[in-house]
Design a protein that fits this description.
With 143 residues, this protein is mainly beta. Helices cover 13% and strands 39% of the residues.
Length: 143
């Protein structure tokens, strides 16, 4: 009897995890050329000695993860991708949808290869500070 209860309980936990464990990932490049009302994040990526980092990829991703644990449901939309120029400068331009300004957040994430956490140099803009026609500045200093 005890074994049967444990099996049923385990099945229930597994079923709940499967039902809530889906994160919808989308590429949302509707604003690739930014026709207007765009949000911009720009800055410079340099090393600690001041040397600019050339060719580093940065992404802007909107996330709305509806649970306490990030892997258990919600949506992500990749909004923009860019690379730093020879002086380490970058600009990400993207159009925020109406629902993105009401909930969720945007993560600006440099693709740093020697970082144990994939978002260790990330910059986060939360829904209550997101605006269209606005430029945010985020400079990154790498070791």
């Amino acid at each position: 009897m005890k074994t049967r209860f444990l099996c049923q309980f385990g099945f229930l936990i597994a079923a709940l995890y499967c039902l809530t464990g889906c994160v919808e990932n989308q590429e949302d490049f509707i604003s690739k050329y930014c026709p207007g009302s765009c949000t911009e994040v720009s800055g410079r990526v340099v090393r600690a000695n001041g040397q600019p980092v050339k060719g580093m990829q940065l992404t802007a991703t909107w996330k709305n993860l509806r649970t306490f644990y990030e892997g258990m449901g919600g949506a992500t939309r990749k909004k923009a991708v860019t690379y730093t120029d020879a002086q380490g400068n970058y600009t990400l331009r993207f159009l925020l949808r109406d629902d993105e300004m009401e909930d969720g957040y945007v993560v600006i994430n440099p693709q740093v290869t020697n970082c144990p956490n994939p978002e260790c140099y990330a910059y986060t803009l939360y829904w209550d500070e997101l605006k269209r026609d606005t430029t945010y500045t985020y400079n990154i200093e790498l070791p």
